[in-house]
Design goal:
Layout lengths: L1 H24 L4 H7 L4 H7 L2 H12 L5 E10 L10 E13 L9 E11 L10 E7 L2 E6 L5 E5 L4 E4 L11 E11 L4 E10 L11 E3 L4 E7 L6 E5 L9 E12 L2 E10 L1 E3 L6 H4 E10 L4 E7 L14 E8 L2 H18 L8 E7 L3 H13 L6 E10 L7 E5 L8 H14 L8 E5 L5 H14 L7 E4 L1 E8 L9 E7 L4
Antiparallel strand pairs: 1-2, 2-3, 4-5, 5-6, 6-7, 8-9, 9-11, 10-15, 11-12, 13-14, 14-16, 16-17, 18-19, 18-24, 20-21, 20-23, 21-22, 24-25
Helix pairs in contact: 6-9
Length: about 500
Amino acid sequence: MEVENEKGMAECGKNIVEDVVKQILSTLPPKTLIRFKCVSKRWYALITDPRFVAKHLSNSMHNNLSTTSVLLKRSVCKDTREAEEPEMVFSFLKFRNDIANGGEHAHEEHSYFSEVEDVEIPLKTSSESLQIVGHCDGVICLVDLTGDEVFLWNPAIQESKLLPPNPYLQGYGFYYYAVAFGYDPKSKGYKVVKIGCPCPIGRERDDNGYYIYDPYKAVLYTHMGTDSDSWREIKTCSLETQTTILWPETFQMYFKNVCYWTGQEQHKELHAYEVDYPEDQFIGKVIIFFDPVDEAESSHSKYTSSPLSHSMLEKSHSYSVWAIPPDEVSIRVKKVMEGLRAEFGGPEIEPHIPVVGSIRMAHEDVLNEFTNYLQSRVISGYKAKVSRVVFRSSYYQCVSLLVDSSFSCKNYEITQRALNCNQIFGFCNRVRPHLSLLYGYLTEEEKKKAEEKVNILDESITSMSFPITRLALYKIDYKDTTLKSWEKIAEYPLLFD
């Protein structure tokens, strides 16, 4: 019995010693820990254990006496005696945190500038072409603007990793890439998201002189430090609305497990004469965010006429004004929709023509604007005439009926109604009227099959014309591609002569 007690006490003492060692090691600087990995296999296993890494990071973040470092890229002249060209270097601005010991400011925290330290990044790429994307938990993400390579770098331990080329964005003619970097607390891995932005300039125009913007493609790299680390493609449905796409420009920050870009909202199509005028291309500024946990993109608008939109409170909801066809036309169109959906999948769509497709306002405001505008004017109905069936690469215009909106056509009334509504909601919709038959993504081969399917289901649908006698206001969550949460919140009948 005494022998068992002695063994138990010895084991208990051993555990206490290990706990003390863990606690001491978790307070040491990273460079010291790197050296201590060579002490023994036991210490190596402890220091590289993910739980210990998390504890060490937590201690560092809550250490009031630690040094805060700011990484920046700056232009310097190494030799001031000669008129040489400046070169780009990376430097750490170091700020030391301290706590006052006496006087009236006792126990107050102070941060003061300590030193500037130029650093050599352990990469073959020149500092000139490297751009800082972001940082997370001491790991910095860099991108090479010339070769489009992405690097992860931990300056504390001087380790770096070049991410492998991704196979998903090759050959699509992307001229711009938006990159973000963050951490997924659920999977305990770092994530790099890369969005390829296509350009319509140089592409062929359609018969009416319009350039069509293709949707963005996005890929995600998950870094877990294992052999399973790899790129994979992710959906970008929430980077578009029925009539617009969201253009991420500058990555701003990773904050509370979410990545944020600033960007622009622009039309899905532009006439040739509008392409050279940025004021015609872009609708307004947006904040685009990406959640590394559920891997979903979304956006909030910020228009020049107001501060940050109330959509910040409405989460990802948007509003849209639809022109609703008569019941007999809806029944006819739904038969075509059902046939396409049976073969290619996709959600069930209520037949409509988007009049204003991307409104971000508070619920009460958008409802009041919609109701007051229509009640203050005698709005008459108008006719819509289908021009042809068109196929797009974007999700919400996959297969649709293009409605004639030419100036020589009486159906220009539909465009005029759109312009009137646009003025009310501070939005300019330059996309031609269309009635979507299918939401989704189709390959070129599938598009050919879909065209044949439409002709079989209704061979005269491209000569169809019908009156518009109703406008409806819908609340839309563009992250919900099933459309189950899309809700009609108001409807207004139009007078028809």
